[in-house]
Amino acid sequence: MLTVIVCLIAGLGAGIGTGLAGLSAAAVISPMLVTFLNMEAYDAVGIALASDVLASAVSAYTYKKNGNIDIRHGLVMLVSVLIFTVVGSYVSSLVPNRTMGSFSVCMTFLLGIKFIVKPVMTTKEQQESKSERTKIIQSILCGMVIGFICGFVGAGGGMMMLLILTSVLGYELKTAVGTSVFIMTFTALTGAASHFYIGGGIADIKVFILCVLFTLIGARGSAVFANKASAEKLNRITGIILAALGALMMAVNWIK
User: Fold this and answer.
1) 8 Å CB contact between 212 and 95
2) What is the CB-side half-sphere exposure of residue 84 using CA atoms within 13 A?
3) The pLDDT of residue 109 is above 50
4) pTM of the full predicted structure?
C-alpha cells in the first residue's frame, strides 16, 4: 500500500508538472522513491526518466494538436542539448565536490514565484517577428547552456528550458511548454535507455509500471487543461504548481 501511495503522489505530481509547465518528472519522482521506498538513487532516476518519456510524448502531442509547439527550432535545440549534456557531465566528473545538488529544487520554487509575480504575457506574433537566422542561433546557444547545466548538475533540464524559452527566446508560455516537452521526450528516452542498459534492467517492475501510469495520467490531464486556459490563468496556476513542487522537494530533501 505504501508503494502505491508513494507512486501515486510522485507520479501525479510529476505528470502535472510535466503537462502544465514542462517540468522533468525526474525532479519529483526520483527523490520520492529514494526517500520513502529506500530505492537506490541510480535505479530511481532510471524509473523517473522512463516515466518522463510517455508523459512528455503525450503532452507534446496535445500541445501540437493545439498549435502550441515549435518543432523546427526545438529539433535544433535538441541537438545542442544532447551534445552539451555530455560535455557538462564530463566537466562535472572533474570537480571534486558537487556543490549544486539542490540547484534544480530551489530554481523550481523560485521559477514558480516568478510566474506568479511576473507572468509571461508574450504573444506568438512577437516571436514570429524575429528573423530565421536569429531564431536558429538563439536555439543553438540556449541548447548549449541548457545541456551543459543539465549534464553538470544532473537535473533541471525541463525547468531550465522553460526559463530560457520564456525569458531569453521570448516564447509565449504555451509554446514554451510544448517545445520543452517535445525536447524532453527524446532526452528522457536516451537517459532511460542508458540507465537501464548500464544498470542491468529495471530494478522494480511494480514501481516502474505505477510511476509510468500515474505520470501519464497527470500529464495528459494537465496538458489538456493548459491548452484551454487563458495566458493569465495558466501563468498563475503554473507558478503555484512549480512553487508547491519546489517546496515539496525541499521538504523531501530535508527528510532525507
Assistant:
1) no
2) 19
3) yes
4) 0.82
Residue whose C-alpha is closest to residue 213's, from 23, 69, 1, 4: 4
For residue 106, what are the CA distances in angstroms to 65, 157, 249?
A: 33, 14, 9
- Grid coordinates representing 229 are 486556459
**Beta carbons of 226 and 20 less than 8 angstroms apart:** yes
Contact status, residue 234 vs residue 226, Cβ threshold 8 Å? yes
Give 48: exposed, middle or buried? Use CB within 10 Å, 0-12, 13-18, 19+.
buried
Q: Is the pLDDT of residue 81 over 80?
A: yes
> C-alpha 102: how far from its chain's center?
15
Look-up of cell digits 532510471: 46
pLDDT score, position 100: 46
Using a 10 angstrom Cβ sphere, with 0-12 exposed, 13-18 middle and 19 or more buried, the burial of residue 256 is exposed
Task: List pLDDT tens digits, range 11-27.
Answer: 998 898 899 888 877 77
For residues 69-98, give the mean pLDDT.
Answer: 79
Whether the CB-CB separation of 104 and 31 falls below 8 Å is answered with no
CA 126 distance to own-chain centroid: 25
CA distances from 253 to 50, 89, 102, 247 (A): 22, 23, 9, 10
75 CB-near residues (< 8 Å, 6+ apart): none
**Best CA proximity match to 214, nearest among 46, 56, 55, 19:** 55
> Would you say 214 and 11 are in contact if contact means Cβ atoms under 8 Å apart?
yes
